[in-house]
Specification:
This protein is mainly β and 133 residues long. The chain is built from 1 helix and 6 strands. The longest helix has 8 residues, at 57-64.
Amino acid sequence: MNTNNNAIVIGYLPEKPAIQKTKNGKSYIEFEIPARDNYKQPDGTYPTDWVHIRAFGNNAEYVAKCNKGDLIAVGGAIKVDRWKGDNNRTHERVYVRCEQITRLAKSTRQVDESTSFDTGNVVADITNDDLPF
């Protein structure tokens, strides 16, 4: 990874990502990972931001094999798309361009009535105190 522009996002996939192909036949996936804050709001809920991720090539193929509820870690670079919209208004979208990805734990949720996943000996209860950064 680039040493000047690094982002690491760890979270659960809210849905199974769908792989797509560019005009040149290159695989890519776009998905979001929820990032919950550690403080409670007065109504008892936790604020959540959604981090947009883009993966290409082998990383996209890897993500396509993951399922809803899998815990994944994405490492990459922060990028910004800028474009002009209606009334010549400039828009921006910040995302992480995936350079590394690892599935930390499989989902234990039922995908359908006949399929489920087992986390085995993987501990999925990760708190901020467990992370080295």
